[in-house]
Automatic annotation (TrEMBL):
UniProt protein name: Threonine/serine dehydratase
Family: Belongs to the serine/threonine dehydratase family.
Domain Tryptophan synthase beta chain-like PALP: 15-303
Cofactors that this protein relies on: pyridoxal 5'-phosphate
One Gene Ontology term from the biological process aspect of the record: D-serine biosynthetic process
Keyword DNA-binding attributed: no
Source taxon at top rank: Bacteria
A molecular function GO annotation: threonine racemase activity
Keyword S-adenosyl-L-methionine tagged: no
Amino acid sequence: MEIEKSHLEKVLERIKPHIHRTPVLSSTLINEMLETNIWFKCENFQKMGAFKMRGATNAILNLPEEKKLKGVVTHSSGNFAQALSLAAKSLNVPAYIVMPDSAPEVKKAAVRTYEGKITECPSTLKDREETAYKIQEETGATFVHPSNDLDVILGQGTAAMELLQDYPDLDFIICPVGGGGLIAGTALAVKFFGNKCKCIGGEPIEVNDAWRSLKSGKIETNESANTIADGLKTQLGDQNFPIILENVEEIIRVSEEEIRAALRLIWERMKIIVEPSSAVALAAVIKEKDRFKNKNIGIIISGGNVDLNRLPF
């Protein structure tokens, strides 16, 4: 399908009653420190604490009524599990969530709070996919991928769309890259609603598959997943990668130390709780400070679901 501006506009209208229009914050101190102007789109204040509520809601709303009755299923260890559960609950649709048995208890508890029906399995991708497929067969539920689904991608793009409505003259919008749903949606919003704006991704060096994929022109995988940014360990898919390849200007890689420093800066100076994945975008701006000097920058703060028992400081 050829994606057009009107598709994103319709998605925002569709999901608007079911999501928060999140605030945009700025920090005089951070702006002075970096000699730039940054506007933070705070999806940590979204329902269930992350941008993923947008895509999950759009995916469910777009289902025919007969499919809604049978429910939705996904595999996720974190934010998308919560997002699909809450979106489904608010729309009276059953949600079946496949979670690795190694997922933190706090995340399983959150899914249960939103009435998602959890099935645990070993943590390999193969086990997750097979378990989700089995549930599909048994229940007739529709599978919704956390990041490699066009309805999800368009839903995630509405965060940047709202940001550009508020600040139409941004030079860059920067967001973290994990499974690729957020950056693909953001890139589409920038393409259709930006005024000379460019979309850039931030990615941990430890899981730099998207950076390598952009270089090679094909989807690369990671050997390790050794990063504090636990929301960014997943890889790109065949739905979002072509969008990223065509519309993302660049991906900037940052070290674990740089992510921790950016995370601490946001917590200390902006007084808001964000998860490590969210700090990756600011870490990218700090790393390339000279390049972004005197520019107008939008940063998507992707979420604020932090395991307080595992803080890095």
